[in-house]
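Slide 14.
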Amino acid sequence: MINRRNFLVLTAAAGVAAGCSSRAAEAPIASPRASPPPAPAVDLKFEPAETDIDLGGVSVRTWAYNGRVPGNEIRIRKGETLRVAVTNKLPADTSVHWHGLAIVNDMDGVPPLTQSPIPSGGDFTYEFMVPDAGTYWYHSHVGTQLDRGLYGPLIIEDPAEKADYDEELVVVLDDWIDGTGTNPDQVLENLRKNGMKPMEPGGPGVSPTTPLGADGGDVTYPYFVVNGRVPADPEVRDYRAGQRVRLRVINAGSDTAFRVAVPDTDLNVIATDGYPVMPIKTKSVILGMGERVDAVFTVNASVPVVAVPEGKQGHAQLNIRVGGAPSAAKVDDFVAAVRKELVLDTATLSPTPEVTLPARTPDQVIEARLSGPGAGYTWPFNGRLYDPTADGIGVKPDQRVRMRMINESMMFHPIHLHGHTFEVVGRDGPRARKDTVLVAPRNTVEVDFDTVNPGKWITHCHNTYHLEGGMAGWIFYEN
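Slide 15: predicted structure.
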């Protein structure tokens, strides 16, 4: 991974190289009617394939992009074109979804709704303009492939940004089971055959310190990782005391929400799901699967960045090192303390004025009723299981739509809407702009979005196993 300053240098160099030719010294004469030059393009190649990965002393056979977990970090500027040529070397169909980006529908990577799957041995090229700056990511949108290693970070820079930090640290969180004696397909088969573990007694258990209730998920994972490393041998990043670091955190897990914290450190949260928020300081922040958060903090000493799985045992970490000194933090004690404290849900934050949706009464209200589990490990969405060939939910162009997410189940669901960002509806005003939001057990969350990106767009729970159990619907634009 490269830091922000190096990225800007490399991007500028790439732009110069792209514009050079044998006639480079002959600058064209400007014309008031000339078309603007095309935006620079970033060209990449992905080869998803089966491979061996070292998670830090733990060797697993898994699926990965270009032999890496996470996949290569993509850095690109807002307004540039991203072209990714995918050659599928897996023994199965696949795709790539660009999570959080409001791009053209046929590049969204959701078979069969927006494209045919890329067959084994086949090729497909994704090409689109990246519309918004922020922290995003990419992953397979076929079956349980996300719960292998088919994901990676996508960072979109804003050339006009005036940064008040020195370095960036991208942290990708994951729950890991593939290649440990089972694989995600076998996990799903077992859930369908035997069901999930019993729910905790006493109701949903939602409280200020347990905002997602008593049930942390359906899958027991042997490992939790940060940037593909287990806590026994974590990634180490070196900084100088006093440096200000922009932390970009992506929850790429399939069944696990994480609390993120740094010992004796305030996190100044500045963005969620790519969109800026009014800054707020917190000791810890919770992220559902698919959510992201940006926070700035000052490095004072050698400390771990810790990810604590909600309702599950274990943790993941990355070590920050200053002056070559080891951390003095007692990680187990810190993890236990983080589990008991009040934690920030990014959906409660306020958007900055420039990204706040203009005030408008919704033209249409649609519902997403979330229920389950049913027989055979099914998770209905509005009373039925996902079917991309059945009727979707019609919306009209250029309208304000309110989606009411009603969780009738005893488990939390991070709900993701493709092709759009939405604004969370607060009791006393607008809340954060996001594309994925946590809906706690027996709770309702409302979000508003504008219908400005035509196509067929899936909306679903970002728990991989709930999605495979049917918890998804889709919207389409009517004429």
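Speaker note: The radius of gyration is 22 Å.
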